[in-house]
Predict the 3D structure of the following.
Amino acid sequence: HHCWADAARLQQVFWNIIKNAVKFTPARGQLRISTRNDAEHYIIIDFTDTGIGINRELQPRIFDAFEQGGSGVTNRYGGLGLGLAISKRVIDLHGGKISVRSEGRGTGATFTIKLKAMETSLLEGPAYPLDHDGSAKDGAEILLVEDHEDTARALRRMLENAGYQVGYASTLASARDLAAKRRFRLVISDLGLPDGSGLDLMGELGDSGQLRGIALSGFGADSDIAAAKAAGFAEHFTKPVDWERLRHTIHRLLGQRG
């Protein structure tokens, strides 16, 4: 499945749909992502969740700006309702289509993206394995530090589904407390925290040389990457995070531990 597209913008669209699915799906719910090619040589990507669903009368407006499924949904879950409008604009600019299907409240929803497929792939670089053997480096403990609630929830679920034991903190202070109580093998930390910096946290936790670190940031300039490396982070990821690349990196870093 390959298409000619702006990878960063498409990643933002996919990440937005995934975060919405996590946000509107209760605990122990499911999100299934599938891809296929149709007879017209389009790539079809389906994001199917078991969440709260969308009323039929609201579905034609769900991609409009500031529309989030009604005032009750906005009051309960927050947000401005701009994510899907931006996502539709990005897909439109790629010559594709985005749509939603739901039988109504309480029945879950499926968001579908159609993009024109390429006949051959121009993809270069390493291919990250998609196997899910559940080993996850013997259920290694990972400290996740992220103050954005939706991002943290999505990352935590994916890490736990991959077989890792995840300790979660949303502030520098709570991350310090958690690190003092548990023996983590890896820290994944946002750099911008409400009460400090992930750089300070890595500097403190990495002193022993036994803890590897992955930095998350909305900025990816050379100076940002250099600052993360100087603080002791082994890798730097610019948001939105590519999950397969992150999973591959986690596996590699944990495997390097002596």
Observations:
- Residues 71-80, 127-133 have pLDDT under 50 and may be disordered.
- The radius of gyration is 19 Å.
